[in-house]
Amino acid sequence: MKRLLISIIFVAAFVCSSQAQRGPARGHGPKERNPIQIEQLITDLSTSQKARIHIVTQHSKKVIDNLRGQLNDVRDSIRNYMDCVGDNSKVLFPLYEREGRLQASISKEYYRAKIAIDAILTPAQYKALQEKLAAQRAQRQRQRQQNHQPNRH
Asked: Structurally, how many domains does the chain consist of?
């Protein structure tokens, strides 16, 4: 009985260590959101506005890329501990909390960039942008509804 227990513990430890050594699994996270290409939606931007928007989006992209890297690392750790045998809640629960904080930080950075870009636009440009974005959302909604309609013959 002791040998069986020791064998099980040994195999579990080996599985956990091999999972940790395997390294991060990339490409399994959520789809990346592409930053809004304001220049494609609003064609009457001045050179100054384009430059300022470029600075905002580049800064935001750096921040988000850094946060996504951290989020991927946390998710890799979560997957590794989920694959291990036994109760790993003391390690996993703080990782889940960190994952949530990182997701919130990414959402906040998207919002900060949106607010900064909105402040650069004139009222007429802002209105035109909102109309074009609303039309895009409506189009996506129609496509989703069409894709989820059951086939009736």
From this structure: 1
Containing structural domain, residue 87? 43-132
Q: pLDDT tens across 10-37, in order? A: 434 444 444 444 444 444 333 333 445 7
Q: Give dist(CA 109, CA 70) in Å, integer.
A: 15
CATH number at 56 reads 1.20.120
Residue 2 counted as domain residue: no
Chain-centre distance for alpha carbon 98: 14
pLDDT score, position 40: 81
Q: Which burial class, exposed, middle or buried, applies to 105 when counting CB atoms under 10 A from its CB (0-12, 13-18, 19+)?
A: middle
Q: Is 100 within the bounds of a domain?
A: yes
pTM score of the predicted model: 0.67
